[in-house]
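Section 3.1 - Work completed
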Amino acid sequence: MHPPMRRRPSITLWRATIADLAKLVVMSTVVLVSVIAFAATVKPLSDGTLQAGDLLRFMLLAMVPMLAYALPFAAGFAATLVYHRVATDNEATAAHASGISHRSLVGPAAAVALSLAVGLAGLNEFVIPRFLQEMQRIITVDLARLLAQEIQRGKAVRVSGMMVYADSARRAVPDPSSGATDYLLLAKMAAVETDAAGAPVTEVTANIGRLWLFPVAGDGQTVAAPESEAGRPPMSRVLMRLENAVIARGDEALGVARDYFEIDWIVPNAFRDNPKYLTMFELARLKDHPERMNFIELRRRDLVYALAGYEALRSIDRGLKSGREVRLADDRGRELILRGSGIEPAGAAWRIIPLPATPEGPGQVQAELVRAAEGGRGRTLMISRDARLVVDRGPDQANRTFELRLEMKRARTRDLGGDQQAAAERAEIAVTGFKPQPDPAAEYLKMPSRQLLKEASPVLASESPDPLVRDAARELDRRLGTLSIAVLSKQNERMALAFSCAVMVLTGAVTALKFSKKLPLTVYLWTFFPAVATLVTISGGQQLMEKSLVAGIVMMWSGVAGLLLYTWLMFRSLARH
């Protein structure tokens, strides 16, 4: 009968050391991450963006993202304490006497380091981005709640270039048929629009204000379903209706009363503007679909409507020069028929060149407005020698669009449907909201960012490129480069943090064996300060990548490499003695 096989001493030592390491890593991580998570709640709580009822939930959510920074230090601290005990209890001496090498003695720390690095990499790539989204949603995404909070405190809120104040604000459940996701009722409110210098331009007062929040798709159109691929709409549209409003502009002494006055604006989703909220696979997909980021999508739409305006004006110019009528239409079913000899730049507008002079009179620009009327179509002829086309691209970047406005000065009109007697001359006539048919923007809106840049290349290569197309293309190209660097920076940061966690465990173990005669906390300082320097270089390298890609990557990984070299030198010194 054979005697029972004895477990090898190194395996026994490994099992005991790994068990001690696991317990201390868990304990130190829980303590450290709880302290850091509590500290993370202080600022949003003091700023009022975090309600007391959400405090515990926010703190629990914050614990997971804080693991990226707490786990390396906690693991290094645990390794220092465990291996310091191994050294002071003479377990290391006994192991050496029994023929166990230093490499084998540090083996449990290497195994724990590898498992922690893999686990932290998984957290960084897949779990932490989702928890960051939930944290951000609690303190910023609930727009209606934030507006209500600020107004209840008596503060004015800036929305869409206007300062809004109200005596009270109350949230309510929106009508399901409206498609709104949130609804806010404001009482006795005022809104002031200011210019770039801060001077008031428009003042609006109202007894009641109503605010609705709608989900918006990437093309700026309201959508029925509030969910996107990341679980939330890429943008939100806010509609504010002021009832029984009085509007005063500039130096007008008396305001104009209206039954209601509406303001709407687009609010980008914060999750679609920062790569830190994206998982590894979502970051990889940004290479082919960068417009998933709002700051890219807004610039893409800038280029879409700049190209649409350029193509529309070229088409109008070609049509008028060939002697054909140019037909435009709007969303209300109206049609605008232009007759002239072409168009030419005139500052921010385009002057319509009049038709050639005839024996009956001088050359004129003719514009025929056709609209729906009872029993048929109403037709009005407008004639002027000074007519201009103005491209209207929307009030701001988030509300970008493309429409043409016709402005005619010293114009005469004639109703072609009945009495054809010309009316008295008018100082100015303006009709707006017209587009060529088919709308040139429709095809451009389907194109991704890089394809749009290819479409813009011939325009940019011309001798006198359109300034709107040129500026929009340059800005989109610059933003695409910024996004590529941001994605690469985030990918390297996550990998560097995971790798630094493994190195810190080894550093703690080797340092504790090296300085076994010193106190544990003194020994940990030999690990702590190099670890801090490593995280500083990772963070500094990420910021430096925005200016210099190569220098940023070198700086980011230099801290990890330096810590690894420091640990290797410590181990070599330990092995020699």
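Second construct:
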Amino acid sequence: MCGIAGIFNLSSAEPVREPLLQQMITRLNHRGPDGTGFYTDNHVGLAHARLSIIDLEGGKQPIHNEDKTIWVIFNGEIFNYIELREELERRGHRFYTHSDTEVIVHAYEEYGDDFAQQFNGQFAIALWDSNKKRLVLLRDRVGIAPLFYTQQNGRLLFASEVKAILPALAHSPTLNAQALDQLMTFWSPVSPETLFKNVYEVSPGFMLIVEHGEMTSRRYWDWQFPVSQDEYFSASEQQLADELHDLLISATQIRLRSDVPVGAYLSGGLDSSVLVSLIHHYGNVPLRTFSIRFEEGEFDEGNYQNELIQHLGADHSRVHCANQDIGNAFQKTIWHTESTVMRTAPVPMGILSGHVRSQNYKVVLTGEGADEVLGGYDLFKEAKIRQFWAKYPDSEFRPLLLKKLYPYLDLSKGRGMTYIKSFFGAGLDQADAAWFSHIPRWNTTAKCKEFFAESLKAQLGDDAIETIAKSLPRALTRWHPFNRAQYLEAKSLMGGYLLCSQGDRMLLSNSVEGRFPFLDHRVIEFANRVHPKLKMKVLNEKYLLKKAMGKYLPPSIVNRYKQPYRAPDIPAFFMDNKPLEYVSELLGESALRDSGYFDAAKVPRLLKKIEQGRAIGYKDNMALVGILSTQIWHNHFIKNFNKNFKSGG
């Protein structure tokens, strides 16, 4: 993964100058510390910050075709570049490097706008066709590699991160209040919105084409599910398990292609354990693994990590993350996420990637995506039970099934039933709604909006759920409810938060590239045609994955109760029941009134509640982290805009 930035003249006659491109790309040095490259003409300027993974000597970007009429800058990897190159050479194309980047220009020449369909990879691409005066911005199918853009003064500005766009702006950006409202419902804005007003992302699976002064957006891929029973696979369980097994081997092997050493993250859960086992048995590379340990037992998975390390004989190292480490690193984390976050979970991931880099590794494989693709989340179990409950909402027996999902929670009879009915019972009268599966979670997150200032509320228009509903495909209402939930999770939490704030931004903050075999589009397209009953058999999550890969793992890992990755929230920001100094400052009345986003009377009461030890549950945790991260975001990108982006900061 690297960093890209550029300027395209839509109507401006001013030439694109390299010094401005230099200012932009410098903000992405953490993504690409191994060198920079530039291309400019009268219409466009392209800049690239390189993290050298493939063709270390010859892969410098921008890359061009034979007659230098097509130029490309690229963040990511085209994993099937070897096969693509062989095919393109047979068709007469001539290459001057051994990089995966060069297949992009020749694939565009050969296949036109269908060139993205040829790629197995993760990518954000800017391609300039000088003959047609045409710019193509392209993002991978699921949104692993980020790409943002805005227009100002007759120019289109684009980059891998918003901070690389900001030096080219004449004035400080402002908050997109509607996006914050959406984020405090879904954990991320509805694509293509971002927290910066008038700055957008190229949505996953889309290409943006700019030609003759016009911009058009085109979807080239999306998650698709059967609308009728006969569209599901009819093969036996074992046949499907065998096919999934082979697909995962291929997806893993192709992601081990690299001219530098490759490691893997190991959490101790099923997904990372499957991945590490695949590398061990089929990778033909040394097995090098990395993990996080926490000081608090409810977050730590060290025992399971140790069991798999001993089982496979991996060369392993771990980083210990204390509560204080999270509090100390949180401001830096928000500099990299460029967004509000609702939990502190990204922070340890940034600390872990720093450890990986210190061990001289630039690439790691992770198990991200398995839950979305193969049906692993507790949310899917909840939705299944809630669908059952909604048929008889007065039943006393049906909601009791939800207690079995969380054996680690104190759900004693009286208190437990009250909680179950208030939390999981939300939306039972909307069982046919496309978003039924997510109503309890979204309602809980949305309670944080009680802290919005009246001035911010006045800026809000459409309801967040109404907005996301408009973005859903028409066919979704004809999909199985389980598949609807998968789509919503992939398009909200996974794409906008897990792969971004918790994934790409934390990896690349330390110049580490993450690769995700479970998000190989072949695996997704296969899994989407597997009937939900084989993804979750009764309430046994990722059933088909366990059937396909269980033979490689200790039974204790295959059969363990799923423990979602979490990190300490409130405890990270308080020492001896007193907030850290920057927390007090940013959540003080003066700072709150300065930003104008949150109620300057309500937020101090939340702090007081926490200091008195009365803050409990998800709402208080999310409220504190969400408000604090928004205030930090404001400090970095709005209040200190001139210092950080206009004066060499």
